[in-house]
């Protein structure tokens, strides 16, 4: 909690009501210390909305986020849940349905520009619908979109107009899924922010939610991005983020493997073909991460000798800061196209007609699972 320089009571943002702090720009309520004595005092996020008609992401941990979610079920609201198609299972909010109650949910599936251009979008939509249903999430609509390419956002805005009625709009999502881009678009389309924010305080004061007033008296509620520790993006260094997070369409890399062969994805993770007939595996990994093939019997020694050098990123020093690897084993059924998914790193499609026994080694805590093939 930040106090005034004169030792008085904590300073509250005149925009959203949050207690100000001067130490962490990425956390709620940040303001440069030299601005604390100005009037009115508003946090960095409110300043950006007021002056630039845009909002920036802030984050909270899971417990804090669940407290925020628990309030939505008591409201009359439309909920927009934004997920990342590249990291679908890692960015989907588990158990969202029990928090939102009977309120309608729109699932906005962002970063579709990362999928290969020849992708069958109807199949992707059906895949998303099935996966969401298995997670217990009931959706009024699924919208495939790309914030980067500004694709699908007109459709999303149409859906919001159709479903909103006399409701507030809550926007929820994990970090790095494109939530701020959507909020900014909603601001431009639904609210005269300059008029509203220069004359009045935001109505909301709950934690770091920001209530953005709409022209009809309702609000867009910008919730913080939840930090999920099982995503690769939360454990790598900032300089290595660009190596694992793609910024252009994925180029599938197919490998014909015999059992007893291994693929290293830089020094981030490894994939073992433990047992099965000679077959093809297709890697959907950022091209900035070099794939190295070797024999399974040599894999442990290769990693011990060359991690952080031949097998990089990360560097040896950065690798020492990451959790040790854990082994995950999967048996892929016959005639069952499947992905071995590594949260935040990508996936390996198993193309076999005959099944396979495979294993993945990844930092402890990173989510690794077997799922029906996305593509």
Automatic annotation (TrEMBL):
Pfam families the UniProt entry points to: MMR_HSR1, YqeH-like_C
Matching NCBIfam families: GTPase_YqeH (TIGR03597)
CDD domains found in the cross-reference section: YqeH
All copies of domain CP-type G, residue ranges: 66-229
Name of the molecule in the record: Ribosome biogenesis GTPase YqeH
Gene3D superfamilies xrefs: P-loop containing nucleotide triphosphate hydrolases
Residue ranges the record marks as coiled coil: none
């Amino acid at each position: 909690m930040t106090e005034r320089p004169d030792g008085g009571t904590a300073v509250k943002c005149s925009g959203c009501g949050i207690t100000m702090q001067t130490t962490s720009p990425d956390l709620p309520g940040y303001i440069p210390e030299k601005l604390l004595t100005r009037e009115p005092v508003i946090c960095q996020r409110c300043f950006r909305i007021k002056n630039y008609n845009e909002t920036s992401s802030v984050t909270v941990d899971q417990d804090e986020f669940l407290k925020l979610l628990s309030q939505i079920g008591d409201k009359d609201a439309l909920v927009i849940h934004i997920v990342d198609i590249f990291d679908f299972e890692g960015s989907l909010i588990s158990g969202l349905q029990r928090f939102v109650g009977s309120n309608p949910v729109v699932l906005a599936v962002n970063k579709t520009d990362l999928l290969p251009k020849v992708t069958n979008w109807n199949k992707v939509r059906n895949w998303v619908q099935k996966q969401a249903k298995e997670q217990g999430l009931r959706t009024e609509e699924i919208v495939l979109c790309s914030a980067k390419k500004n694709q699908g956002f007109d459709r999303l805005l149409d859906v919001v107009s159709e479903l909103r009625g006399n409701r507030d709009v809550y926007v929820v999502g994990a970090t790095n899924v494109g939530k701020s881009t959507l909020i900014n678009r909603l601001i431009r389309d639904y609210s005269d922010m300059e008029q509203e924010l220069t004359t009045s305080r935001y109505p909301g004061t709950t934690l770091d939610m920001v209530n953005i007033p709409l022209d009809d008296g309702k609000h867009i509620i910008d919730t913080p991005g939840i930090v999920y520790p099982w995503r690769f993006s939360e454990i790598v260094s900032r300089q290595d983020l660009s190596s694992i997070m793609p910024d252009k369409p994925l180029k599938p890399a197919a490998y014909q493997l015999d059992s007893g062969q291994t693929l290293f994805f830089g020094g981030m993770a490894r994939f073992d073909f433990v047992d099965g007939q000679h077959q093809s595996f297709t890697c959907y990994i950022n091209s900035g991460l070099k794939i190295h093939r070797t024999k399974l019997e040599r894999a442990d020694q290769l990693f011990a000798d060359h991690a952080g050098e031949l097998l990089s990123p990360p560097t040896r020093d950065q690798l020492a800061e990451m959790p040790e690897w854990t082994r995950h084993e999967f048996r892929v059924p016959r005639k069952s196209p499947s992905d071995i998914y590594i949260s935040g790193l990508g996936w390996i499609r198993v193309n076999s007609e005959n099944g396979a026994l495979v294993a993945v080694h990844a930092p402890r805590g990173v989510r690794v699972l077997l799922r029906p093939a996305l593509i």
